Amino acid sequence: MSVTIKDVARMANVSVASVSRALNGHGGVTAETQKRIREVATRLRYVPHSAARSLITRRTQTIGALLPDLHGAFFSELIRGIDLAARARGLYLLVSSSHGDATEAAIALRAMQGRVDGLLVMSPHADAAFLDENLPIVLPTVLINSHVRSERHAALDVDDFGGAKVMVEHLLASGRKRIVFIAGPAVNHDVEERCRGYREGLAAAGLGDTAVVLQGDFTEESGYRMAKEALAMSPRPDAIFAANDMMAIGALSALADAGVRVPDEIAVTGFDDIPMARYVTPPLTTVRVRIAELGEAAMDRLGRMIEAPEDAAPEPRVVVSTELVVRASCGASDKAGRRH
After folding, report:
1. Which pLDDT score is estimated for 51?
2. What does R_g of the chain's alpha carbons equal in angstroms?
């Protein structure tokens, strides 16, 4: 039979209320009594009943995260950052993916209601109407990289536009004149902003009419296919800028298979700075998003909303800066670039 709080109280010769206060860190017992209670609980291997505790505290100690996908280095790093920050607050993480489908996203959000104390939402389907329909007003929510501007929800956005514009400026300054952009999924806030930064960077240099956007889907395979398409163009581009590192890595593979020298003939750059970006050949020039830190920041913000519900109004939207990281794939030596 499992050990109960009553067993701990009997062995420590205190009340059940004293055990609860000691183990939950609420005070009301002396340091000596708290030490004795904890020692007894450890000896008996007592584990608090989470369901019963939730009834008392009205908290589940669990955070929900809805992401567009769970595959790939970006989401692995994002989840790691969220989980580290959640654990630091004594919280656990429940993760689900929309798999690129609005219905799946709605089902996931509704399934989490009543099971979590707050939500982190990163979904291309999360427009204002969708959120109003599928999220309770009282559930603390932080939106990550969303075009929604709402007084009901806090928001944390990466400066995708600025990062892409700086990358184009860097390529142009390096002497590249025909820059092809490999975009990601069609319905995606990050992609839209990165594509906008690419076009604005060219337009600012008077080269707006040279913009060429190929449609990828954030996978290595799509980067490979789109790089093959770029090679068939006449004249060929002298730079390929992929909207994420995975597609850039796929493009590097396609160029290697075609015998095209990178960066001598064509430069290749990406976005995100996933851990493997520095280890491919040649090392990838990219726009750094501190992915794990983004997850930690979103979780910390949500934690503050949960712990201080009286401060109902969410904080203003926060824009997380990016950083140009120059490596050999664009023809330059390894070095950190400029932040913005």
Report:
1. 47
2. 25
Q: Could you give the CA distance from residue 126 to residue 259 in angstroms, rounded to a whole number?
A: 43
With beta carbons less than 8 A apart as the criterion, state whether 41 and 14 touch.
no
Q: Span 258-269, mean pLDDT?
A: 97
Q: Helices marked H in the chain — which ranges?
A: 5-12, 16-24, 31-44, 50-57, 73-88, 102-112, 128-134, 160-173, 189-204, 220-231, 245-257, 291-307
Q: Where does the pLDDT of residue 56 fall: very low under 50, low under 70, confident under 90, or very high at 90 and above?
A: very low
Spatial separation of the C-alpha atoms in residues 198 and 175, rounded to whole Å: 16
Closest CA to 263 of 168, 180, 328, 167: 328
Single-letter amino acid, residue 211: A
Q: Give yes or no for residue 274 having a pLDDT over 70.
A: yes
Across 48-64, average pLDDT: 64
Q: How far is CA 100 from CA 35, 122, 124, in A?
A: 51, 11, 8
Contact 281, 253 (CB under 8 A): no
Can you tell me the distance from the alpha carbon of 27 to that of 34, in angstroms, rounded to the nearest whole number?
Answer: 9
In whole angstroms, give the CA distance from residue 263 to residue 256. 11
Could you tell me the strand order of the sheet in which 179-183 lies? 212-215, 179-183, 239-242, 267-269
**Which residue do the tokens 């913000």 mark?**
301
Among the listed residues 127, 153, 159, 123, the one whose alpha carbon sits nearest the alpha carbon of residue 140: 153
Beta bridge partners of 215: 183
The yes-or-no verdict on residue 109 having pLDDT over 90 is no
Say which residue the tokens 């969220």 belong to. 82
pLDDT at 26: 60
Task: Say what the pLDDT of residue 208 is.
Answer: 95
Nearest to 163 by CA among 321, 317, 318: 321
Residue 153 reports pLDDT greater than 60:
yes
- DSSP state letters, 61-81: SEEEEEES---SHHHHHHHHH
